[in-house]
Please model this.
Amino acid sequence: MWTPWRIVGELLLSTVIGLLAAGAEALADSGPLQIGAVAVAAKLLTLLRRVLPATVLLLAAVGMPVFAGLSPLVLVAAWSAGRRIDGVGKAAGTFTVAYVLTLGLTVLYEAPGSPAAFAVAAPLPLVMMVVPGLISRYWSQRRALEGTLREYNAQLLRERAMIAGQARMRERQRIAQDMHDSLGHQLTLIAVHTGALEVDRELTGRQREAVGVLREASVAAMHELREVVGLLRDGTEAPGQDGAPHALKAMGEEEATAPSRGVAGIEGLVEASRGAGAAVELRRSGEPRPLAPTADHAAYRVAQEGLTNAHKHAPGASITIELRYEPDALVVEVANGPAPETTDTGRSVVSGGQGLTGLGERTRLIGGMVHAGPTADGGFRLAGVLPYTSPEGGAPRHPSPNAATPFVGPPDDVRRQNPAGALGEGDPVIDRDGLPKELAKAMSRDKRRSGIAIGCGLAALIGLLVVIAVVIGVAFLISEMDKGMIEPKQYDAMQVGRSEAEVREKLPHGNTFLTDDLDKGAPPEPKGAECLTLMSSETSSSWDKEPVFRFCFKDGKLIEKKSFEAQN
Model:
């Protein structure tokens, strides 16, 4: 995608390449017209390298031996071609053709048929083309692999989240079904039996009132059970009356109305306890303030748990519920005195031991706290501190009744809520050791292919460098031998007494390292003479000796020529 910043970057790069091309042409003492033409051509080809990478590379390779200003363009074109040419075969063919063209034209224009020119020209195009192409291709393959792995990682995260959500939903539905079948049945039986007892003529008014309280409690429990079952099943409020048990349908609309489960419902809990014969006092202090829905429900649960514990563990004791609206939080306190001595507190009490633990977790999630413990007079006190706002600092909100309740795991659950973004948008959370088999295989396969391709490229590059080094060495050796070696027939053709200029014109100059140590075992040179020692193309009779020809000159003439074997 061409963004404004990319366009500006391309224009700047093309301008820099054009200026470098103009500078290189100026250093080569080119004319003004050639300097301008090469600079414009380099700039245009730089802009076209993304669209036509192979064409730009070949044009730059052909033009570099002729115009020195195109040398910077070759580097940029090789980098783009390595990244953008599809297929290893096509890329290798393009780079091979570019290298051969550059090498041939360089030798042709610099010094035709010269081994020295070939030795100098061979490595330069290799370094300027093949090396940037290999590096850019490796870099692009690595980026493509990383992008693929990121997409794969995001997809796996989404799939895992979906699978986990479905598993949680199935478990919640199973729990809801069990609660509906077992607990719902028992509550229905209680409601039916208490309804029958309430109209029994043999009961006294006091007994009938107590049975009525029991029936109302069972009806309220049935409503709460319906709400919990609805939340567990699909995260919404309980269904309408069609999903209620048949016994509950038979009750009146007034009785079937669910009680409020917030601060406003605490007074209903107090009235129900008073109706059961308990001495409960409700106190309020401070100016009432609205709470978040979760905090409002937690306040109801604190009062409910305190009353339940007092009824179970200290029956007959006086109970005090206090609602204190502090500047930053609501304090709900339930305290009961010691149980009367006439009360049998040693009877078996059914207690799961999880009420206070669940209450503490509920208040912790909304930024509050719970304290429970004995009092100085032998009673018990339960207090909850509930902030008016949520932990994020937002104002209390009143969501739709159909809003789903968020699922929150326990503190030590590995699925603790993470502040990261949505799935697929944050950093990868799957490490190498925890990868699934298919992703690990894909990574191994892609890395193996990429490694093989890069390894083959490096091996080819090393092999090519070795071949070039051998060719350069052979060419250099041949060139040095031409400077210091003659055949025996050339030696025989040289006659003593001929002019020095005529003889030297027909012989090599001998300025080579091959003739440096040919004076070992040589006969003495004539006094005042200047001698030229050359190697012979003939093989020696012994591996440690070298056949040598020597020509000595004095006063502009050849005065002596000798043939001997020097020690290696």
Observations:
- The longest helix spans residues 123-181.
- Residues 236-258, 345-350, 393-435 have pLDDT under 50 and may be disordered.
